[in-house]
Amino acid sequence: MNLALIAHDKKKETLIQFVSAYKLIFEKHNLYATYTTGKKIMEATGLSVQFVKSGPLGGDQQIGAMIANNEIDLVIFFRDPLTAQPHEPDVSALLRLCDVYNIPLASNMGTAEVLIHGLERGDFNWRTVLDEQ
Ligand SMILES: O=C(CO)COP(=O)(O)O
């Protein structure tokens, strides 16, 4: 499956720890990430990650476009709810597209824990059925 990984600056360390903890699951999937997040994950875990641009430079919109094209199956986006983001409209647009296309989205570690176990268990295999249509 194609997974999108994104974290705002104050949440990047949390996402790195999360991906490291579940590396054995993440390595079975195609990982896409906004630039800074992806670079840090790759350096910390050695996992192969495909980058889009950094979030403030349009990366969230690129991930959104991938969602609209049915190219992303699950999004883990650790948002920082306590810091204003200059590209907040892009963030909202990405979250909106997840809802438009029923893409599973974790915006914090609590939900990400549930999604990652569901992913491993095959709970999202319905996505591959959609891909074949
Ligand atoms: O800003 C982001 C998401 O809105 C993330 O972008 P970076 O991964 O480039 O820091």
Explain the overall architecture:
By secondary structure, this protein is of the alpha/beta class. The protein has a single domain (2-131), classed as Rossmann fold. Helices cover 50% and strands 15% of the residues. The protein is built from seven helices and five strands. It has helices spanning 12-21, 23-26, 35-45, 59-68, 88-100, 109-121, 126-131, and strands at residues 2-7, 30-33, 49-51, 74-78, 105-106. A five-stranded parallel β-sheet has the order 3-2-1-4-5, with helices on both faces. Helix 3 links the parallel strand 2 and strand 3. Helix 1 (12-21) crosses helix 3 (35-45) and helix 4 (59-68) packs parallel to helix 5 (88-100). The longest helix is centred in the C-terminal third of the chain and has 13 residues, at 88-100. The radius of gyration is 14 Å and the shape is globular. The two termini are 16 Å apart. The mean pLDDT is 96. Bound molecules: 1,3-dihydroxyacetonephosphate. 1,3-dihydroxyacetonephosphate binds at residues 6, 8, 34-37, 54-56, 59-60, 87, 91.
